[in-house]
Design goal:
Elements (H helix, E strand, L loop, with lengths): L1 H10 L3 H38 L6 H44 L12 H14 L1 H28 L1 H49 L1 H6 L3 H53 L5 H14 L6 H6 L1 H15 L20 E8 L9 E8 L4 E6 L5 H8 L7 E6 L2 E2 L5 H5 L2 E5 L9 H6 L7 H10 L3 H6 L17 H15 L3 E5 L7 H15 L3 E5 L11 E6 L2 E6 L5 H10 L8
Parallel strand pairs: 3-8, 3-9, 6-7, 7-8
Antiparallel strand pairs: 1-2, 1-4, 4-5, 9-10
Helix pairs in contact: 2-3, 2-5, 2-9, 3-4, 4-6, 4-11, 5-6, 6-8, 6-11, 8-9, 15-17, 17-18
């Protein structure tokens, strides 16, 4: 019930669309029932008049039948149009709502979730929420209004007819859906969980194919995926089987309701309480009225899947960010120097601190390199500076302002990052560049790419800047992707530049070209460089050497040659939690 209340609050901005779609559905249903009932009366009345040889006014019933047919057609189209529009608006807003809650949690609070699981929540789980509106709320309201109207119509002819029709409508529209909901609760929950697990396993299998092949684990991974698929198919088969049973139950209720109505109404015809054409009308009316409840069993069957998806989304939304959002407006620094003042930090459940008593000043416009072995805390400095984590003690300041006083998006507006892991989206080169500055002109894009020494390569491509880069930039080499990242940082034009192993994994020639581009990018900016390679160290003003989270040495390159050389000899690939 809690999930339903919270979902309804999310749906409230679209109540007018929902109300309009529900009204269209009610009109369509009433028009269809009227069409069937009027047609039954009209055909029987015409036949009776022909046998008796009497005249009959056929204009009025014919007009009612035609009006009902036209109304049903237009209503069906309008219902689909309005409900689809409402659903698309709702799903779009839910994705924005979820992302707005997801973004402050990254990366600290999302490390426990696999990317495939998050993708499943963003796509499949949010898509499942439209069941609540289209397949639960609308059918429930339509059924409630229609059952009341149909019962009053039968009551006009006889209370027993009304009682009979109401009884079977309640069985088909209440008892059967409750049974379907109880049966579908666990399979629906399993489907929500298994879809996320299956997507995670498939992504792991594709992205880790090289490692799986190397260690001979491809067959085990395939069996794991096959097991998840079989479980998912089994739950879906159970829901499909139950759906067939519920539809049969609704059909049985409709048939029994018709039989009982005939059993009650035929003596009334014989007694003159009901005319023969009215008997045919009531019979077709009874059959058509069950359209009002026909969709309810499946709606309640899917309710378990919907609520399971809602719980998966709310479990993330309710997570507290690792860094609290400030209550006031972000400061507006007039200068962009960096200061780490006695910073201490430990990752959750880590055996030792990641940083201990770090003191570092980076003057505005100067360049500082941070070097050290794996696990020394280099990347942790970046994580703290980007406000992904908050220091356990001490302070980090930009222009004299504590970064905890900034809102995350405001802080990162002042910072550009060039990482060793350049992420390019599956779109064109131009769109990947415009992420940094959506308002950038083509001339600005080309200027940034010239500085990054990638413009000539892009210009030679058949589609130029409209070239599709593929998933994660697979159609580009590592050096080309890294230079696009440099151009993106130039377009952002942020006063602070963070370089995280920017030449890692590149050959000597590509590294040399990229460093020339980076030298252009660093001009006039406050630069913090993480590296374990000599390239670029002769361009920095000072070097900080870290060892197991503690400062080992600090100064210019000439002052700390021994410590720097030791660090460069002992480093390995950086890990996320350093």
């Amino acid at each position: 019930m809690t999930e339903l209340i919270r979902l309804w609050k999310l749906f409230r901005p679209y109540w007018s669309w929902m109300l309009l779609g529900t009204a269209a559905a009610i009109v369509t249903l009433i028009a269809n029932v009227t069409l069937m009932a009027a047609a039954g009366w009209f055909l029987t009345a015409m036949a009776s008049a022909g046998i008796a040889g009497v005249a009959i006014n056929y204009f009025t019933p014919a007009a009612i039948i035609r009006a009902s047919a036209i109304t049903r057609t237009l209503g069906r189209y309008g219902e689909r149009l309005i409900n689809h529009e409402a659903t698309f608006r709702l799903i779009a807003s839910l994705r924005v709502w979820f992302y707005q809650h997801l973004e402050p949690l990254a990366p600290a609070r999302l490390q426990q979730y696999h990317s495939g699981d998050l993708l499943s929540r963003i796509r499949a789980d949010i898509d499942a929420l439209d069941n609540l509106y289209v397949r639960v709320l609308v059918p429930m309201v339509v059924a409630g209004v229609s059952i009341l109207a149909f019962t009053l119509f039968l009551l006009f002819y006889h209370p027993l007819l009304a009682l009979s029709g109401l009884s079977f409508l309640l069985i088909a529209g209440v008892a059967v859906p409750i049974w379907a909901q109880a049966r579908g609760r666990m399979p629906g929950q399993h489907i929500a969980e298994d879809e996320g697990a299956l997507r995670t396993a498939v992504i792991d299998g594709i992205q880790g194919m090289a490692e799986l092949t190397l260690f001979g684990a491809t067959e085990r991974q395939a069996q794991h995926i096959d097991g998840l698929s079989r479980r998912l198919v089994a739950d879906q088969a159970r829901l499909s089987s139950d759906h067939g049973l519920t539809q049969a139950a609704v059909g049985l209720c409709a048939s029994l309701s018709l039989w009982v109505l005939l059993w009650l109404a035929i003596p009334m015809v014989q007694n003159g309480l009901i005319m023969p054409p009215q008997l045919a009308m009531l019979a077709l009316f009874t059959l058509a009225s069950f359209e009002a409840v026909a969709s309810l069993p499946q709606a309640f069957q899917l309710l378990g899947r919907t609520l399971a998806s809602a719980r998966r989304l709310f479990s993330i939304v309710d997570t507290e960010p690792a860094v609290a959002r400030p209550s006031g407006a972000s400061p507006r620094p007039s200068r962009f120097d960096l200061e780490f003042a006695d910073v201490n930090f430990s990752y959750p459940d880590a055996p030792r601190p990641a940083l201990c008593d770090i003191r570092l000043r980076v003057a505005e416009g100067s360049r500082t390199a941070v070097i050290g072995a794996t696990g020394s805390g280099k990347s942790t400095l970046f994580n703290l500076l980007l406000r992904f984590w908050a220091p356990d003690s001490g302070a980090i300041r930009i222009g004299g302002h504590d970064i905890l006083a900034f809102h995350g998006e405001d802080l990162r507006r002042h910072i550009a990052v060039v990482s060793q892991h350049t992420h390019l989206f599956d779109t064109s080169i131009r769109e990947n560049l415009l992420i940094a500055n959506p308002e950038a002109s083509q001339s600005a894009i080309e200027a940034a790419c010239r500085v990054a020494q990638i413009h000539d390569f892009i210009a030679e491509l058949p589609e130029g800047y409209d070239t599709w880069v593929g998933e994660t930039g697979v159609r580009l080499s590592g050096g080309q992707a890294r230079r696009i990242a440099v151009a993106r940082a130039l377009l952002k034009d942020a006063p602070i530049l963070l370089l995280d192993e920017p030449t890692e994994g590149l050959d000597a020639a590509t590294e040399r070209d990229l460093m020339r581009a980076l030298d252009e990018l660093m001009v006039g900016r406050t630069v913090l460089l993480i590296t374990h390679r000599p390239a670029g160290l002769d361009w920095v003003d000072q070097v900080l050497v870290l060892d197991q989270g503690r400062e080992l040495a600090r100064g210019d390159v000439s002052v700390v040659p021994g410590a720097m050389q030791a660090a460069l000899l002992t480093v390995g690939p950086e890990v996320t939690a350093t």
